[in-house]
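Researcher: Can you fold this with alpha-D-glucopyranose in place?
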Amino acid sequence: MIFKYAFGRPFKTDAVIKSFPLVNSLPDYIEMSQDKKSFTAKLGVDDIIYGLGESVRGINKRGFRYISNCTDDFSHTEDKSSLYAAHNFFVVDGEETYGIYVDFPGKVYFDFGYTDLDTLTVSVEEANYELYVVEGDNVMDIIKKFREIIGQSYVAPKWAFGYQQSRWSYNTADEVREIVRGYRDNHIPIDAVYLDIDYMDNYKDFTVSEKAFPDFKNFVSEMKDNNIHLVPIIDAAVKKERGYDVYEEGAAKDYFCKDEDGNDFVTAVWPGKSLLPDFLNEKVRDWFGMKYKRLIDMGIDGFWNDMNEPALFYSEKNLKKTMEELKKYVGKDLSLQELWDFKDLVNGLANSPSDYRSFYHNFNGEKVCHERVHNLYGYFMTRAAAEAFRIIEPDKKVLMFSRASYIGMHRYAGIWTGDNSSWWSHIELIMHQLPNMNMCGFMYVGADTGGFNNNATEDLLMRFTELSMFTPLMRNHAALGTRPQEFFRYKNIKTFRNLVTLRYGMIPYLYSEYLKSVKFNTLMFTPLGIAFPEDRICRHIEDQLMVGENIMIAPVYKQNTFGRYVYLPEDMTMIRFRSLEDRDVVPLRKGHHYINVALHEVLVFVRKDKFFFTGKAIQSTAELENNEYTFYCADGYKGEYELFTEIYKSERIHN
Ligand code: GLC
């Protein structure tokens, strides 16, 4: 059962696409405040809270507070309450089991046992929102019901399951060629190379630097001939520059966000002074979306949308004010307090709350302050692109993923988890984010493999890869100034070759399970507590995941560790892969095990009454053939598997 409540005048977010009659009285486990701005529920000692998609900390969100407020934050430490996404859905699994979705595009506060361990409190900035309470037989049933009402998730093309290499930035066509050569010469499979901001002419969206990438169209097709897709970045803000047509058109048509007085709100991002397209306005979406055609016409078939929280380096007004205030420090001996104030002035320029309060949208004909609808911005930018793709490329799947997101955007694109770091804890973090993002509809997901910030050591990159090789988006991306992170730059190229080749061998299974989770509203990454609800031990396991219906993984995510404890909720068959061809198959009993895992090894655990399979070694997804498989299962087990190759196409295979 799903109960829908509406308070005040909710914004039309289009997150939920099914309509429901409104209900008046809330279930008795939820207590609503008089002003409707917050509600609480009691938590049993062993209750688990799953959800909130892309956020820090564990799979179980209990014991901290989170704020839905899409934020450009490059340091994902466990004290952060907001990352780039606003995924306001969670499920309480315990004495009462139910799901809650708060459809409000401004700030939403989730106090999950932070103030009081036994109470959850959700507060909303204003009493204009929709609230959905989802009840069902168990957690999985509740998730399915929720996913049904938010509509089918985006389906990525199969090539986007190939390995993808990125860096901020490959500056020229020759540099890209060198990267591709590095992979092809070393026989490490690859399908895509990313173009970060420097491919553009002065960071202007939908332009290509003639100097760095002469004859871009030919270059794209040269890469296609080598089975490489080029994936350019698109940033939300548009450079303010006379003569730049996107700026000129947008300004002439009043398509940019306005300040209080109705003038264009001027901010700054990579290109310097920039304007924010008002993606909440449908006309602006139609206009901006069609701009992607310029790159599509040159052969591009994948994009990543960035800086769309939106990130603001400063606003013109705030910069001016800050400059004035700084004057008072000139020639002064600063006391400690003054030094801090001085530093705060400059540091406070970026993503300043006062700036988010100072610009406006034309949302369904109404002037709306950005702060009230902040979390829709990246979603509506990405929606603009995806809706245009349906017109430009009606018969093709275009790869699209975004940094900022809100539930609803899952129908248009995937997400990556932004600027993580080359930290061991970030291997663990993505393991926690995967199932929670899936719950909220985001199925094409992944983290920057090896970490974006900081320098990745070889062992970290290997262990990171050993988890990423199961995620739909398997992209290695690193920040400007960090150690080169391409696999062939490291000493043990062979191990990376084996890992990526194994990934390609698993694509038939992974893509099929991905399609199934989209089609049937299930999870591709399932916590053991949800997959085995009767097993109490499983409720507390956060470092093992079911991947699809047939296998479980237990990655190593600690440095200098060559083994780990693994809990098997049932008898399973363990495959120890050293490469696609070199592996041992070991039957294991239900229960606790300590298992050695060398740096170059990957463990896959096959469920008792299922089989796993891998395809042949290939160099790109263009060589994928769904016909020759190696099967893995318990001795004597014979079974059938429905292999999905398209969302509406499947065949039955037998071991
Ligand atoms: C942002 C993105 C990152 C990108 C960089 C430069 O930090 O999150 O992925 O490399 O901008 O475009």
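Model: Folded with alpha-D-glucopyranose in place. The chain has three domains: 2-150, 152-312+358-416, 509-654.
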